[in-house]
Automatic annotation (TrEMBL):
Coiled coil: none annotated. The lineage of its organism: Bacteria, Pseudomonadati, Pseudomonadota, Alphaproteobacteria, Hyphomicrobiales. SUPFAM superfamilies: GST C-terminal domain-like, Thioredoxin-like. It comes from Sinorhizobium kostiense. InterPro entries: Glutathione-S-Trfase_C_sf (IPR036282), Glutathione_S-Trfase_N (IPR004045), GST_UstS-like_C (IPR054416), Thioredoxin-like_sf (IPR036249). Residues 8-84 form the GST N-terminal domain. This is Glutathione S-transferase.
Length: 229
């Protein structure tokens, strides 16, 4: 069976950067499932698989198409129950939903503002035009003004990690002694920043930095397969 993962990339198609795609890449590796990555730009997404999705990641697993990183993880858990669990049961699934909400409401907006010009500059010209128009409509200001405001996010970013920092005092992963999908959710956000941005968000010696390094090493160093910006 051929699995294909459509992954958002910039002009350099060897550097998929979407946080949601990285969640899914690690989830597939966690399950021990082989897959190929099909890099796409923003403006190519509406034409994927006869227009089946407006977002990536999109996974084709044989005849099955699944979009949205959390939905893909749920699908993998149900379709491959004999392989290592991504959630560790119903409680783990609920906890992962909480982690996803925290990550997307706290980390993603800050990273998006910090890295907005870095993202723009790494795109193909057609995607740059799309990205500028869509983001300036979303924010109600120019990308340059968003990036200027992102300086405050950069200064306060470490404090946003305090809940994660507290938990990692007691265990090496959010999942406990080993990683679960909750780890991949937060890893995806920080991997996004690592790949696209010149800014360094994690300080050496921080327990979060140590955790992130452990995540980079998972699954034969999958996270390190794309070098930092």
């Amino acid at each position: 069976m051929t699995r294909k993962l459509y992954a958002l990339s910039g002009a350099d198609r060897t550097r998929p950067f979407s946080p949601h795609v990285w969640k899914t890449k690690l989830a597939l590796a966690h399950k021990g499932l082989e897959f190929e990555v099909a890099p796409v730009g923003f403006t190519e997404i509406p034409s994927l698989e006869q227009g089946t999705t407006k977002i990536v990641p999109l996974l084709r697993d044989g005849e099955t198409l699944v979009s949205d990183s959390f939905n893909i993880a749920l699908y993998l858990e149900e379709a491959y129950p004999e392989r290592p669990t991504l959630f560790g049961g119903e409680g783990g699934t609920a906890a992962a939903r909480f982690v996803e909400g925290w990550s997307q409401m706290t980390l993603h907006p800050a990273i998006g503002r910090i890295a907005i010009m870095d993202i723009h500059d790494r795109l193909e010209p057609a995607d740059q035009a799309y990205f500028r128009q869509s983001r300036e409509e979303r924010f109600g200001k120019t990308l340059e003004a968003v990036a200027e405001a992102g300086q405050a996010d950069l200064e306060s970013f470490s404090a946003k990690l305090e809940p994660l920092r507290h938990m990692l005092k007691f265990q090496p992963f959010l999942g406990g002694v080993g990683p679960l999908f909750a780890d991949y959710i937060v890893f995806g956000a920080l991997q996004w920043a690592r790949i696209v941005s010149r800014h360094r968000l994690l300080a050496a010696g921080d327990v979060v930095s140590d955790w992130f390094e452990r995540c980079l090493d998972l699954h034969e160093g999958l996270g390190r397969s794309v070098r930092a910006a």
